[in-house]
Amino acid sequence: MVEYLTQAIVLNSRPQKENDRIVDIYTKNFGRLNVRVIGGRRILSKLAPHLDTFNMVTVRLVEKNQITVTDVMTDERFGKERQDPIFYPSALKIISLVRSLTPLAAPDARLWYHLAKNLKTGGGDIATLLKIFGYDPMQASCDSCGNSPVKFFRIKDQSFFCGNCGLKWGTDGLIYL
Fold this sequence. Notes:
It is a single chain. With about 180 residues, this protein is α+β, with helices and mostly antiparallel strands. It folds into 2 domains: about 1-125, CATH 2.40.50.140; about 135-175, no CATH class. The chain has 5 helices and 8 strands, in the order E-E-E-E-E-H-H-H-H-E-E-H-E. The strands form 2 sheets. The chain has a 5-stranded antiparallel sheet. It has a 3-stranded antiparallel sheet with strand order 7-6-8. A hairpin with a 3-residue loop joins strand 2 and strand 3 (about 30-35).
């Protein structure tokens, strides 16, 4: 049994079995992980309140057959930012990109610091995030017509679209840059 202590940003959580949860986190040291929280769905769970989406936490992980959360402490909750009608949708887009484009257990220091900075400042620089992933919007052209500059990014197939072509696809799965 191996134990780790690291900072993490909570990306998402979903139920597992009757009382457990699987939490998708992006850690400073290990990258994106899906970790198990035993009893995380119970009403009186001591861990569940700390594992809300967008929280920055310090988490103790134990790896035996799978990675399990044994202890967690909230470092930053970003309560004011959650109420901001501009921040919240932007933060959801950023988290969606991270969950879709980041492989499990692949740490990236630039990505960690970008996520932490954006959550603390309430900003949502999607173009810089895409550049960290290797998709630079400034160098891209539309995948349909070849025009530049691009205005949309589609997560499903990692393609860029100009304003005219992006509107043809509808808004499903498109992120406005």
